Amino acid sequence: MRKIPQRTCIVCGEKIDKKNLIRVVKNKEGEVFYDPTGKANGRGAYLCGSDECTEAILKKNALNRAFKMEIDEAVKLKIMDDVKNAKK
Fold this sequence. Notes:
This protein is of the alpha+beta class. The protein has a single domain, classed as YlxR-like (Hypothetical Cytosolic Protein, Chain: A). It is built from three helices and five strands; from the N terminus they run E-E-E-E-E-H-H-H. The strands form two sheets. Strands 4-3-5 form a three-stranded antiparallel β-sheet. The longest helix has 15 residues, at 73-87.
């Protein structure tokens, strides 16, 4: 049986199968964006997709901690919108 890769949600800390998580990427240019394919080049951070964890992008600065950098408010709002639209 093949091992299913697991990742940890950057907000709640829950370990979940990678394919069930939402990936946010920081590429070499320092751009941070939602990755619907899960295959974009760069450092990935994962969200479980619950509303609480999605809201924490803004409230708790979860992405700032994950990528160890200051991320612009507009970028965070765009990622939140992309994630919410992807769940529909």
